[in-house]
Amino acid sequence: MNKELDLTRIVTAALQRERENRHERQGWYASDLGRCLRGVYLERLVGPPAYDERRLRLFAVGNLFHQWLLERVQETGERVLTEERVEAPAYHFSGRADLLLLGEEETRLYEIKTMHSRGFWHRQKSGELVLPQHRLQVNAYLWLLRERFPNLQGYLCYVSKDDLAVLTVPVPYREEDVAEVQRQLTVLNTAWAQQVPPPPAEAVVFDAASGRWAVNWQASYCPFHARCTGDPDWLAKAEREASARNRKGGESRGR
Ligand code: SF4
Questions:
Q1: Is the whole model's pTM more than 0.90, yes or no?
Q2: Which ligand 1 atom minimizes the distance to the CA of 41?
Q3: Which end of the chain is less crowded, N or C, counting CB atoms within 10 A of the terminal residue's CB?
Q4: Has residue 251 got a pLDDT over 50?
Q5: So where are the chain's domains?
């Protein structure tokens, strides 16, 4: 009898192995910016959470896509640097800038974010192009690379994974974003030195763009709910709380 090829099992085992072989993190990463700082702290303390298989596959597809795009750019023969290491040792901070396009008069920094086409087209329609956490990440790179690359311009490229549509948005250097990056890193470093986690993120926040209360994205994507809140029903409760505040209407807005 022929053996069956169980691709699902092969993929899952490969992803688990990749996960287990990851290096222990030493500090803070660019992708930590804008997240719940308590969650970032816990991740450094106890290691990456045990994501479910579907989440691991999603990460893997995003990485593959990302790599594929960088290779296509390298093939063009343009002068580029890819995955350039960026660091601020005083803040125990590091990251990798996806792509630097070296020109005569300026250098362009592109940070690539892949996403599902539904979110991509929704973003185009709503006009809410740049997510705050992505803006902070690009500004962190601009802050740390400006000396090396004078006249450095930042961009975010959102790429839809289903149909390869691309949206490129300029991200100007802003002092207030750099100050926010430094503030978050200072909170994390202080917490680490004292071994006391930063305060929890708000469960429900007011979204000025939609004019409605919603579950805080920082919290809804957090893998530490059980450990942090001790309440496995946390998300459902937060959703009920957001609905209740929306039913109440404007009186509680902005509070
Ligand atoms: S459960 Fe909430 S407060 Fe705790 S780490 Fe996650 S997002 Fe932050």
A1: no
A2: 5
A3: N
A4: no
A5: 7-195, 200-255
CATH topology of domain 7-195: Lambda Exonuclease; Chain A (3.90.320)
Residue nearest to atom 7 of ligand 1 (CA): 219
Give pLDDT tens digits for 57-104: 888 888 898 999 999 999 999 999 999 999 999 999 999 999 999 999
Pocket of ligand 1 (CB under 6 A): 36, 38-39, 42, 200-201, 218-219, 222, 224-225, 228-229
Q: How far is the CA of 107 from the centre of ligand 1 (A)?
A: 38
Residue 36 CA, closest ligand 1 atom number: 8
| pLDDT (tens digit per residue) in 131-148 | 899 999 999 999 999 999
Can you count the helices (H) and strands (E) in the chain?
9, 8
Q: Which two tokens stand for residue 204?
A: 């429900």
* Greatest C-alpha distance within the chain: 70
